[in-house]
Amino acid sequence: MKKIIGLGVVVLILAGAGCATLPPKTMLTKANQGILQGKWEGGLTFAQGQMCNMVLEIANNAAPFKGNITLSNLSQAGGRFPGNFADATTYAGPFENGMLTDKGDFIISGQAGNFGEFQLLGQDKLSGWFYLWGTRGTISLTKK
């Protein structure tokens, strides 16, 4: 009897966890690409587990998108990002080539092969991954 009750509790916990899912992906097209314009804020997590804050500002409402990325609260990486972050705790840089992909995602690229690819979730969340100065990680942003 205790096993059945314990199993029931586990099933209820798992069912409740499923209710906290992210909104479905919204395909980005020429018809709705203007939703990207504006300020997006959230977090960036490097593969090594380090986290920092990220602001993505998109200045225009059509491809090619232009804007700026700002990272703050960077860990003192001690050379983990060769010659680019050094001992800085912030990093900012422009982009001028944001495009929509055939998958309905948003992608930007920068110098030295750096890039990020984002999915729009619902109308106000961007989720994706990046490759920056030799390391990879994930991004989660909300429109402000």
Word description of this protein:
The model is unreliable at 6-18 (pLDDT under 50). This protein has one helix spanning 2-18; strands at residues 25-26, 38-46, 51-58, 65-72, 90-100, 106-109, 115-121, 125-132, 135-143. The chain has an eight-stranded antiparallel barrel. The protein is globular and about 45 Å long. The chain has one helix and nine strands. Helices cover 12% and strands 46% of the residues. It has 144 residues and is mostly beta strands. It has one domain (2-143): Lipocalin, CATH 2.40.128.120.
Defining traits:
single chain, 144 residues, 1 helix, globular, mainly beta, Lipocalin
Number of domains: 1
CATH class: Mainly Beta
The CATH superfamily is Quinohemoprotein amine dehydrogenase alpha subunit, domain 2
Q: What is CATH's topology name?
A: Lipocalin
Second-tier CATH architecture: Beta Barrel
Percentage of residues in DSSP E strands = over 45%
Please count the helical segments. 1
User: Could you describe the largest sheet, including whether it forms a barrel?
Assistant: 8 strands, antiparallel, barrel
How large, in whole angstroms, is the Cα Rg?
19 Å
Task: Note the overall shape.
Answer: globular
